[in-house]
Amino acid sequence: MDLARDCLDTQLVDLNCRHMGRVDGIVIEIEDGEQPRVAFVESGVVTQAERLHPRLGRLAARLAKRWGVAESDPYRIPWAEVTPTGVNVTVGVEAEKTPAFAWEKWLRAKIIGRIPGA
Amino acid sequence: MKKAIEIALGIVTSVGGFLEIGSITTAAQAGALFQFRLVWAIILGGVCITFLVEQSGRLSAVSGHTVPDAIRERFGFNYFLFLLVVLAAVTLLVLGAEIGGVCVALEMATGVSFQWWAIPVAFMMWLIIWKGTFSVIEDGTAILGLVTLCFIVGAIVMHPPWKQVAVGALPTLPAHDRLRYWFIAVSILGASVSPYLMFFYSSGAIEDDWKEDYINVNRVIAVSGMSFGTCISVAVLVLAAMVFLPRGIQVEHYSQLALILRDAFGRWGFWLFISSLFVACLGAAMEITLQLSYMVAQGFGWNWSKNQRPKDEARFSLTYTVFIILGALLVVVGIDPLKLTIFSMALTAATLPVAIVPFLFLMNDEEYVEEHTNGWIGNVAVIAIITLAFVLAVVTIPLEIFGGG
């Protein structure tokens, strides 16, 4: 598999085919004397900001720590749980229970869910 | 049989959704100032959007990606964000113009100034999107949009010199107001070749679950829908040339536009025009709102299907709510809807390459469209028309603004 072409920026879906963000980054671990190894894929605003500019990434990380609602941003998914499935990359989790849905759940609880007819 | 119905519905959708504030205004100004001389611009724009819509439908049917989705995947986050910012800025102006169009229709009907209508109209749009499903919104506005066919009937009733109209299909320079001529040509191209239309179409293809066997359905819908739509725009131009030019009306205010169907239908013409303007702009405003929100949701990988309940896609729902508010604000602060329309259309033409160039790469990438890549005619036609629109826009927009003409 070609990591940048087939995995980076691809749609992430959970076990129930719910969209849960995109592969915003890929973390590769390099240890002395060993082959480089893909450890995680990352998703979240901090990684996106990092891609625009490292300084923006640091700013986003600070803001996320202070005001973010996710317990971890970026959300890291171990490589073992990731399966490319053609159009998407499937992750063996339930999106609702992951940090990827932290803002979604926050908005639902605080704003959108309170509007009649939601 | 199922596909025949889908084709019929698809054509109705394209025809009913074709006309909006931009195409009405630019075509009317063109006719009022330059008689039939700018028919070529409408046809050129129509040809280009036909190619682009067909291609984006093909991309979605074969690859399972919408256009913004594929651009994010193929060109990365940074390019996607750049595209999003540019398109969102221009498209918000267009959204303001469409909401302005709905409000102007209401002003003509009631006499209450258009600014007062912005908030009720925004709320109505929001409520329809909040409650409606994709097919209700798309089919509903399309079927109501068929009222715009009255422009074609009107143009025929007026017995225009068809030979001269046909001659207008070839570009000729007028003896006066050349800068204005080119500027209106740009606005016409921007009004017909709008990225939101092709992005929306590709989102629709995914919502309707098109697969590879829909390639021919897609082709028939794109070609017939866009050609019929183009005919309506030409009809508006013809009407303007027959009604406004002899009276020396240059269409500098919307209230003048209301006369366009008067000669053809008498008193009824006034009401036909108001309902066409209302329906066409309302439909376009909702499609633009949805498309902008689809683009955000697709690029960031959120859920975006309009067939789910708002609370199951809270981020998407918040996004369209914010866009509607921003669009309505442009009208509330009292920007002249006519000026907003003309400039947002010209700006659209200037930003076309940003959206279309990466799209053409995708249409030639076998990773996405397999053996259904573009032929050279499709590539060359689109590149040529986009380049023309871009060059004209870059030259004429500053001249228009700073009064060089």
Alpha plus pi helix count of chain A: 4
Order of helices and strands of chain A: HEEEEHHEEEH
Q: State the end-to-end distance of chain A.
A: 42 Å
Oligomeric status: heterodimer
Q: Which sequence of SSEs, written as H and E, runs from N to C of chain B? A: HHHHHHHHHHHHHHHHHH
Shape of chain A: globular
Assign the structural class of chain B, choosing from mainly alpha, mainly beta, alpha/beta, alpha+beta, or little secondary structure.
mainly alpha
Uncertain segments of chain A are none
Structure description:
The complex is a heterodimer of chains A (118) and B (405). With 118 residues, chain A is of the alpha+beta class. Chain A is 31% helix and 26% strand. In chain A, a hairpin with a 7-residue loop joins β3 (25-29) and β4. The longest helix of chain A is centred in the middle third of the chain and has 14 residues, at 54-67. The model of chain A has no long low-confidence stretch (mean pLDDT 90). Chain B has 405 residues and is mainly α. In chain B, 78% of the residues lie in helices and 0% in strands. Chain B has helices spanning 2-16, 21-34, 39-63, 67-110, 114-131, 134-145, 150-157, 162-167, 178-192, 195-207, 215-243, 254-257, 262-265, 267-300, 314-332, 337-363, 366-369, 376-401. In chain B, α4 runs antiparallel to α14 (267-300) and α9 crosses α18. Chain A binds chain B through residues 5, 8-12, 18-22, 24, 43, 48, 51-52, 86-87, 103-105, 107-108, 111-113, 115, 117-118, and chain B through 63-65, 69, 72-74, 76-78, 80-81, 130-131, 297, 299-304, 309-311, 313-315, 317-318, 367.
